[in-house]
Design a protein that fits this description.
- By secondary structure, the chain is of the alpha+beta class.
- The chain has 23 helices and 20 strands.
- Helix 18 packs across helix 19 and helix 19 packs antiparallel against helix 22.
- The termini are far apart.
Length: about 750
């Protein structure tokens, strides 16, 4: 139903807008129920009243809309009234409501003292009688008091006019047109002065910041040198007022003001469905937590994905030190996947949306699903960090099918919803946790690191539980939807309402999406050593048996090469897709020991390894010779009891980060069945498990011993016989018996003489 504020004026000469095209009413035929429309190019069209009343894209033209004092201007609003004028308008509204309903509040369930009065009782009087009674009541007021209240000249027709305007515009319809009369502008600002002001604005915007006195001097200089002394320039106070009205208060820093003036290509975006715009941002977690290897207090980075329409925190990640492009890719994958229920979550945190039963979602997902929206993002808004601007993320957006659009430079307001979410999470959750660091260093406690009690895993579980149970059910007070600005909504209710408005496409990505989001390498398969990825060799005799030394059937830029996927968080294996079965397999690093455990390591540790090898002048023939150097870099040969004391905090953080990244990579990797041939899981030994302090230190020593043992066994394939005990030959032979001349002595192998 069309609101009263959008009543169509069908008088000849009025304008209407149909599907963004403006038409002028040439002739109206009420006895036939139709009007004749004419376009700007002379095209005529005949439509009915019913067609115009039910057309969804029909509205009155703002150029010819007959709305009294609002003609040629934007519609009036309640906020345009000053505080005093607003009180007078509310008083007029109370009188109108009493005339219409008999109660000044307009609601018979909330009557005032003595209401309804006999002359305003709607059950005993008519509307006309009540209007005449109100005119008599206002005429009996003191003249001076009535004039101060704006009720000194109220007649029967005035009440009717106020009531019509109230129905069309609300409270502002009761306001006097003189209260909101059209601004007279600044007559002293001529075309020459306007040109000078705009020229000085452009000049000062590109230069360094100057005072208003300097701008006033530049304006006068421009006018004098361009137009002469005959043009009069307004006073300094007038120029200050004009500058503030045209360009704002000017409190921004100079570089921010320049970036705000950058042209906008596509204009504003109206978000009206979940997944249309997802904002990504990263911040340092304002809570000290303890990493899981050494137990040192660290400040991880928190990356969130916020759906701008429902304000749902659809995904988040905690990373030590900083996030990478792979972490962002896996975060986008989490947005598309339903969140599984955790063991300690109750039924109140299960899938709550009535549009789709929880059993249906669980059947498609393969597990019980928690109450958190999931969808395929259409547009992803990020800042200009290097983690969001790289070739890998460009490939990720192609695979997922979304658009990654960076915000404007130095304009955090382009991601206002995401920035505000960080502040809300800080006040609602992080401030309640032990180890909170405050907003900045000046607000920090005496020892937040010593107060840290939660580990990284416990913090991740706490945030996930709080999002599902608290954030998704909290009331959105300052960001209601456009279709219900006065309603009470939460992220969950908005997502449930979207089912009926735009539907829900339940698309759960395939497990193979994990491999498609990893960095790609196009290499050849060596006949003896396998594939080489970033200075390390990877091989598997069984998987690569049919492809060794053979070129790929791929054409184009990477003709004849094979596609290998690498996970930068865990370099112990790479991933190869079989061209026949299209199944993914893991190729283990050739330097992995056959027995025992191998610590996790990533790209950063491999770079350190190759640097140390080059510095030492080593040129190893195989990755097996690199294993001792890598083990030395990972843990060194320090006794277990002295390891934490001999390593710096930065080194310990690096080790903890490698373990955390390996765990994240293992959790993101799709589950596979164990191989029946060698007891491996996807090419990696099943004995490789996440290690904790002091297990990681002890494991490094075991790895070094295992490597030394393997080298000894390779050097001597057959174990030599132990030497005889001293004097054993005297117990087996007669020392007094002389051998024959042609008989060899069995003890020394020489012939007897």
């Amino acid at each position: 139903m069309r609101s009263g504020a959008a009543v169509l004026d069908l008088s000849p000469g009025a304008g209407v807008v149909l599907d963004s095209a403006e038409w002028t009413i040439e002739r109206r035929e009420p006895h036939l129920g139709r009007v004749q429309l004419v376009a700007a190019d002379g095209v005529r069209q005949q439509v009915s009243f019913r067609f115009l009343a039910n057309h969804p894209q029909c509205r009155p033209s703002s150029r010819t809309a007959a709305t009294g004092a609002d003609r040629g201007r934007q519609p009036r609003a309640r906020e345009d009234l000053t505080a005093g004028r607003r009180q007078l308008a509310e008083l007029r509204l109370a009188h109108l409501l009493e005339v219409e309903t008999g109660f000044r509040s307009g609601d018979r369930l909330r009557p005032g003292p003595g209401e309804p009065r006999p002359e305003y009782d709607p059950d005993a009087t008519t509307l006309t009688q009540r209007r005449h009674a109100k005119v008599a009541e206002l005429a009996g007021l003191d003249r001076q008091q009535a004039k101060l209240l704006g009720l000194d000249k109220v007649g029967y027709r005035t009440l009717i006019r106020w009531d019509v305007d109230r129905r069309r515009a609300g409270l502002v319809g009761c306001a006097d047109d003189r209260w909101l009369r059209e601004s007279g502008g600044h007559p002293s600002v001529t075309e020459q002065v306007r040109e000078a002001i705009l020229a000085v604005r452009e000049e000062t915007l590109r230069g360094s910041r100057v005072s208003m006195r300097t701008k006033d001097f530049l304006i006068r200089q421009y006018v004098r040198e361009t137009f002469g002394d005959q043009v009069e320039v307004p006073s300094y106070r007038t120029l200050c007022r004009i500058w503030r009205e045209w360009f704002g208060p000017g409190g921004a820093r100079q570089r921010y003001a320049r970036s705000a003036e950058l042209p906008v290509k596509n204009g504003h975006v109206v978000v009206h469905r979940p997944g249309q715009v997802v904002a990504l941002d990263t911040t340092v977690l304002p809570v000290k937590v303890r990493e899981g290897v050494f137990g040192d207090p660290v400040s991880p980075h928190l990356t969130i994905a916020l759906d701008v329409y429902t304000h749902s925190l659809v995904a988040f990640r905690l990373t030590l030190v900083s996030d990478t492009a792979v972490d962002v890719a896996m975060l986008l994958r989490d947005v598309m996947m339903p969140l599984p229920m955790r063991p300690d979550w109750g039924p109140e945190m299960a899938w709550p949306y009535p549009g789709i039963p929880a059993a249906v979602v669980a059947e498609f997902a393969g597990h019980e699903v928690a109450g958190l929206p999931f969808f395929a993002p259409e547009t992803v808004t990020t800042d200009h960090g290097s983690v969001y601007r790289n070739h890998h993320l460009v490939e990720v957006q192609r695979v997922i099918g979304c658009n990654v659009l960076p915000s404007r430079v130095l304009r955090p307001t382009d991601k206002a919803a995401c920035e505000r979410a960080f502040g809300v999470i800080r006040s609602l959750l992080f401030e309640k946790l032990s180890g909170y660091t405050g907003v900045d260093v000046a607000d920090r406690g005496a020892d937040p690191g010593g107060d840290a009690a939660l580990t990284v895993e416990e913090m991740e579980h706490t945030i996930a539980s709080w999002i599902v149970r608290a954030w998704q059910n909290r009331v959105l007070r300052d960001c209601p939807p456009s279709w219900d600005p006065d309603g009470t909504h939460s992220p969950n209710t908005l997502f449930a309402a979207s089912f009926a408005q735009v539907g829900f496409a339940m698309e759960i990505p395939r497990p193979e999406l994990f491999y498609e989001l990893l960095p790609a390498h196009y290499v050849r398969i060596d006949a003896r050593r396998g594939v080489k990825i970033r200075d390390l060799w990877y091989d598997d005799e069984r998987i690569l048996a049919d492809y060794r030394g053979q070129p790929s059937t791929r054409g184009g830029k990477h003709k004849g090469k094979w596609l290998i996927r690498r996970d930068p968080r865990d370099r112990r294996a790479v991933f190869f897709q079989d061209p026949l079965s299209h199944a993914w397999h893991s190729l283990a690093w050739t330097g992995l020991p056959q027995v025992g455990q191998m610590p996790a390591f990533g790209d950063a540790r491999v770079r350190d390894l190759m640097k140390k090898v080059r510095d030492c002048g080593l040129t190893p023939r195989s990755d097996t010779e690199l294993l001792p150097v890598l083990l030395e870099l990972i843990g060194s040969k320090i006794p277990v009891s002295q390891w934490p004391a001999r390593m710096g905090k930065t080194q310990r953080t690096e080790h903890a980060r490698e373990v955390t990244q390996a765990e994240a990579a293992d959790s993101d990797r799709p589950a596979q069945a164990p191989d029946e041939h060698d007891g491996r899981l996807g090419g990696l030994p099943t004995t490789v498990t996440p290690l904790r302090w002091p297990a990681r230190a002890a494991q490094v020593a075991e790895g070094i011993d295992a490597e030394r043992r393997r080298r000894r066994e390779a050097a001597v394939p057959v174990a030599p016989k132990p030497p005889p005990v001293l004097g054993s030959s005297f117990r087996h032979h007669n020392v007094f018996l002389l051998p024959e001349d042609d008989q060899e002595d069995p003890r020394d192998g020489t012939a007897g003489r």
